[in-house]
């Protein structure tokens, strides 16, 4: 938790030093996540087989960092604890994807 709080503090300081909070409304943060996710997808575009697992790790780190940064800022804006919301989602998914039906399949919950 200390590492997360340190990173969040650094993100907020970085943002505030540049007076960017004015641009970080919920819509723009959500759009930024989507745009950065598209850039992450670009890393894998047209790759097959082993190429998919042997992508440029530095580029992967850059794009994941952007996505996580905007996600953390959006969660902070709405006073959401990222660990709590992920844990809650895991519990919901456990009900939608019971082990006895979902194990070993990529089917969506409504197809199990």
Quick gist of this model?
This protein has 6 helices and no strands.
Walk me through the structure.
71% of the residues lie in helices and 0% in strands. It is mainly α. It is globular, with a radius of gyration of 17 Å. The N and C termini lie far apart (36 Å).
SS-based class: mainly alpha
Shape designation: globular
The whole-angstrom Rg is: 17 Å
Q: Which range best describes the helical content: under 10%, 10-25%, 25-40%, 40-55%, 55-70% or over 70%?
A: over 70%
Question: What topology emerges from the helices and strands here?
Answer:
Elements: H1 2-17, H2 26-44, H3 50-53, H4 57-77, H5 82-96, H6 99-102
Helix pairs in contact: 2-4
């Amino acid at each position: 938790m200390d590492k997360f709080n340190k990173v969040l503090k650094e993100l907020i300081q970085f943002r505030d030093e540049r007076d960017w909070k004015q641009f970080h409304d919920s819509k723009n943060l959500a759009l930024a996540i989507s745009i950065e996710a598209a850039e992450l997808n670009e890393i894998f575009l047209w790759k097959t087989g082993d190429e998919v697992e042997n992508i440029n790790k530095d580029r992967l780190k850059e794009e994941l960092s952007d996505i996580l940064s905007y996600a953390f800022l959006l969660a902070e804006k709405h006073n959401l604890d990222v660990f709590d919301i992920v844990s809650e989602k895991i519990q919901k998914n456990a009900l939608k994807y019971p082990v006895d039906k979902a194990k070993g399949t990529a089917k969506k919950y409504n197809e199990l």
